[in-house]
Amino acid sequence: MSPKSLKAAGVALAALLSASAALAQAPAPASAPAPTIQSQRLWFGAAWYPEQWPEARWDKDLALMEAAGINVVRVGEFAWSRMEPSEGVYDLDWLERAVRLAEKHHIAVVIGTPTDTPPAWLTKAHPEVLRVDALGHVAEHGGRRQFSYSSPAYRAFCRDIVSRLAARFGRDPNVIGWQVDNEYTDESFDPQTRAMFQDWLKAKYKTLDALNAAWTTAYWSQTYDRWDEVPLNADGGNPGLLLDHRHFVTDTWISYQKTQIDALRAQISPAQFITTNFGGLGWSDNWDHYAVAHDLDVASWDPYVGQGQLDAARNGAVSDFVRGWKRKNYWVMETQPGSVNWAPINTTLDRGEVRAMAWQDIGHGADAVLYWQWRSALNGQEQYHGALVGPDGEPNPVYGEVAKVGREFAKASAAVAGTSPVSDVAILQSYDSRWAIDFQQHSKAYDQLKLLIDWWRPLQEQAQSVDVIEAGQPLDGYKVVFAPSLNVIPDAMGRKLADWVRAGGHLVLGPRSGMKDEFDRLRVERQPGPLVGALGGRVEQYYALDAPVAVEGEAGKGTAAVWAEQLSPKAPDARVILRYGDGPGWLSGQPAAIRRSWGRGTITYLGAWLDPALMGAFEARELSAAGVGPAFGPVPEGVEVMRRTAPDRDVFILINHSPATQTVDVPSGLVDVLAGGAPKPRVALASQGVLVLERPHAR
Ligand code: GLA
Ligand code: GLA
Fold it and tell me: Which residues are catalytic?
């Protein structure tokens, strides 16, 4: 960047920050959501740990960041021992100096609260705050997450340090947001937590009779006569108990988080946002991410590849899933600058892949991409992790590619910021369903992420945008909704889905749907439980498969693997649309999918896990029946199209994930955001190539 454009960027940042402070004071009209600092521009950054380095070095680091187009750093999230070197003795001056120096380089700051890593003095003096694992081992200092998430004493320490940070930085013009803790991970099984779980159950069930009935405790003499008899099982316990434990874990992280949110909100400017880093891979399910996201302004997570190359379908599907946590754009708080240190084999992304991945994140709804980490720490558990600069502070090979992304984000920010993905198509997810299946997988091959991706991929290819949202949310605006494996369908959710279909929606349920109620009890209607009536049919039996079976019907011919259900239409107007092929087993010639018109819509049940080609054909028919076409237009295989929309424009992001150059036909009336001007009608897109196109809406 030239000195002139550097200065312009700094002025723009200052203006943005003061504009957002002004906005925060003047309430926006109810119809338009107030623009928020986290979505007003494309943010680009890195995790920076100034506490690990001599202060004399900071300026050079920040200058190198600025030269790479970095406009935000996250700091502080593991620095408790520097912030409070001994109990009640605080030092935040160094952090203030780091924030000021970042400001000089036009780099905004997100402060992470340091509560993932309590200092040694804390756990030495207050060992009761230490976490106990399911086998009874007490955690020790020297790693991270050694605290008990339910400990009132630990929460009091958290409240104190967070309040001091909020008092110091809550009105700081260069601090734009806060990250509470980092990657809520490990629950505790200490006696106090167990007592809290029992109290939580008492509040939920009121009587032991209700709990005993919900969990069917007559099974294996599990009946409880006193609340303090109820165990705290990590796994292998009653599925009703395990499901309630997941809900308790969720509620405990929510209250852990709320302690810090309350401490922040009491003092910080409304222009500063609050998030937490939901962590690596996005798909983890220790707790319900929808519920934990509720109290936050924005969700953020860490798309890491680990071993191998970017799996575009996986990253795309999980990104859409992450966007669904709050049904709005999110932040990528960490991503890999080439490689990580925790995969079985820590391979490095190829040239161009880091850039393609950053743009794929933006395409699916990220407003920020931050690399982990800026510079390799000289010691500590992650010495081998990828970084933008090496231990000597000089750029690593990937720095140049990252700087290119930085320049592109700066160029595209005006077009892309303020837009979000919008889709006619939704996939439904629920943590209860995921947990219920994973407690009793029945086939080790029943990988719910793989199933989600298998359902998502043809939808993304054909509709070019997919929402993945929580089951039970309003479905207004969607033309067709897919539920790949909605195992838990309580009565109320069943009624909502049936009403939506009756009003004209098209619902496609997948295998294992509607088998359980909210207590993880088997439903006596069989599958799909409360939707048996609307479907006019049900599942007679399910079969785990160790070899594919043939399937054939109106969508074509193929196979099913892993899971197959035998369906039976009961209503005269329920139609069989797929059947299993002939064979010696129970499935021979039996229905694999049935459909019925219900009110003004349709409900379809697909009981088999179809091969990708047949699944593509099956979903293509569903989409065209619902009137859903490609948002951009047809593109060659391997090219992914993503769309972000604002009232006045669409922005299309095209990425060639295939190894060969592909030729894309570009409709007229578009602007090439990165190259400037009108694109050619046929664009040759190299492998890992990225095209960002803007289409103003006609007035
Ligand atoms: C054993 C046990 C039964 C039951 C079956 C299931 O035989 O005795 O209680 O668990 O296995 O196969
Ligand atoms: C997580 C953590 C970081 C770091 C990275 C390494 O996302 O939040 O502190 O450990 O993993 O990949």
Answer: 183, 334
The identity of residue 545, as a single letter, is L
Q: How far is the CA of 563 from the centre of ligand 1 (A)?
A: 24
Dihedral sign for Cα atoms in the order 130, 131, 132, 137: negative
Q: How far is the CA of 541 from the centre of ligand 1 (A)?
A: 21
Q: Which ligand is nearest to the CA of 112?
A: 2
Q: Which one of 52, 186, 331, 372 would you pick to mutate in the ligand 2 pocket, going by the greatest count of ligand atoms within 8 A of its CB?
A: 372
List pLDDT tens digits, range 594-635. Answer: 999 999 999 999 999 999 999 999 999 999 999 999 999 999
CA 440 to centroid of ligand 1, rounded, Å: 16
184-227 pLDDT, tens digit per residue, is 999 999 999 999 999 999 999 999 999 999 999 999 999 999 99
State the amino acid at position 429 in one-letter form: Q
Determine the pLDDT at residue 8: 42
Number of Cα atoms under 13 Å in the Cβ half of residue 380:
14
Taking each continuous run of H as one helix and of E as one strand, the counts in the chain are 18, 25
Write down the pLDDT at residue 9.
Answer: 43
Residues whose CB is less than 8 angstroms from the CB of residue 273 and which lie 6 or more positions away in sequence, other chains included: 36, 37, 38, 176, 177, 178, 297, 298
Residues in the chain predicted with pLDDT less than 70, given as ranges, are 1-35, 699
| pLDDT value at residue 234 | 82
Spatial distance between the Cα atoms of 483 and 501, rounded to a whole number of angstroms? 13
Atom 10 of ligand 2: nearest residue by CA position: 382
Provide the token pair at 216: 């069917």
Q: 608-610 and 556-569: which strand pairing?
A: antiparallel
| Distance separating alpha carbons of residues 287 and 589, to the nearest angstrom | 41
Residue type, 671: V
Q: CB of 415 within 8 A of CB of 73?
A: no
Q: Three-state DSSP class for 647? A: coil
> Rounded to the nearest whole angstrom, what is the distance from the C-alpha of residue 340 to the centroid of ligand 2?
9
Q: Which atom of ligand 2 is nearest to the CA of 77?
A: 9
Q: Which residues sit with their C-beta closer than 6 Å to ligand 2?
A: 182-183, 277, 279-280, 302, 304, 334, 340, 342, 372, 382, 385
> According to the model, what pLDDT value does residue 20 have?
42
Note the ligand closest to the C-alpha atom of 220: 1
Written as six digits, the tokens of 616 are 């593509």
